Amino acid sequence: MKVATFIQPYEMTVTETEKSQIEESTDAVIRVVRACVCGSDLWWYRGISQKESGTFAGHEAIGVVEAVGSDVTQVRPGDFVVVPFTHGCGHCATCKAGFDGNCQHYQSGPIIGYQAEYMRYRNADWALVKIPGQPEDYSDDQLKSLLTLSDVMATGFHAAKTAEVKSGDTVVVMGDGAVGLCGVIGAKLLGADRIIAMSKYPDRQALAKEFGATDIIAERGDEAVNRVMELTGGTGVDAILECVGTEQSVDTAINVARPGAIIGRVGIPQNENMNTNQLFFKNIGLRGGIASVTTFDKEILLEAVLSGQINPGKVFTKAFALDEIQAAYEAMDKREAIKSLIVF
Ligand SMILES: [Zn+2]
Ligand SMILES: [Zn+2]
Question: Which protein residues have a CB closer than 5 Å to ligand 1 (ion)?
């Protein structure tokens, strides 16, 4: 089978490898129907974080179950499923509390390699999310939206949930990548009244508005803070979705927060040291982390996609075949695509 493989920074290729198979009784093997490139993949693609040469890539997919281990009873071969990047067991204390992205039975080992014809999936029984029908029953646009449920939509929603967005809130969304744009959708789903999206690119601004943003701020840093203060009569906002991870973004999030606001953070932290004293002096809450993908899909997001209430698949602005994997990464690296889709 073919799988996307990292060679060195700025160089991806497709290699042939042995077809994925069941190794543990809790596994499933999935035939991938759609996969994609994540904004977080760009950290190692650009050489900012380390990834070993020759390792497989991808952690977002939808597909059809090909085989299941003996302990898997909730899905069976032939089922169409969302394949979350998280692998929650569904029965440990953390999963039960709704944080399946931090499952206590998480096993190290290959959780990547979704940009492939087939893949092995751990903790399949609870973590996979069954989609009614078969891939052929859905339009290309619907398949795109279903694919976002494997990570990006759930991660954007996680930012809104951990920031405790509620009806009537004024919210700032930091980051106009696919996660930030899905954060706009998440804030709207939770009832935010005013959603201020920080974005300097016209195509992303337009999509943010389509997803529910009421205001756009193109400035960065202090200017961005001033603009938010102008828009809120000097008070600051109730909740901030931090979907970037850089020091400047977290600083801006803190500075636009009204006292008592909560920051929901899903941008992967890029600075190891952070001074939290400013949070104390404004009673600001800081939460966030790895998204509860399966929990949110089952609770709200799958139904919201199936009913057409949300259309997060619009973040896929370019499509590629697996053999074009280098071009798929380049398009995101050069900001020619908001998110690159891989069609099998
Ligand atoms: Zn991802
Ligand atoms: Zn668990």
Answer: 38, 151
- Domain with 120 in it: what CATH number? 3.90.180.10
Phi, psi torsion values for 157, nearest 5 degrees = -65, -40
- Rounded distance from Cα 60 to ligand 1 centre (Å): 6
Query: What distance in angstroms lies between residue 123's CA and the mean position of ligand 2's atoms?
Result: 9
* Residue 59 CA, ligand 1 centroid: distance in Å: 6
- Residues whose Cβ atom is located within 5 A of ion ligand 2: 88-89, 92, 95, 103, 105
Indicate whether 117 and 147 sit together in one domain. yes
Distance 38 CA to ligand 1 centre (A): 4
Instruction: Show the beta-strand stretches assigned E in the chain.
Output: 2-8, 11-16, 28-36, 61-68, 80-83, 118-121, 129-131, 170-174, 194-198, 215-217, 237-242, 257-265, 285-288, 316-321, 339-343
Residue in the structure block whose two tokens are 């009537």: 168
Residue 278's pLDDT band (cuts 50, 70, 90) = confident
Residue 258 lies in domain: 156-288
Spatial CA neighbour of 267 closest among 127, 162, 133, 126: 162
What is the whole-number distance in angstroms between the Cα of residue 278 and the centre of ligand 1?
A: 30
The model's pTM is 0.96
The reply to whether 302 and 279 lie within a common domain is: no
User: How far is C-alpha 313 from the geometric centre of its chain's CA atoms?
Assistant: 12
Gap from CA of 295 to ligand 2 centroid (Å): 11
Give bridge partners of residue 56 from the DSSP assignment: 5
Lowest mean pLDDT of 48-52, 192-196, 247-251, 272-276, name the range.
272-276
**Residue 35 gets which letter from DSSP?**
E
Which ligand has the nearest atom to the CA of 90? 2
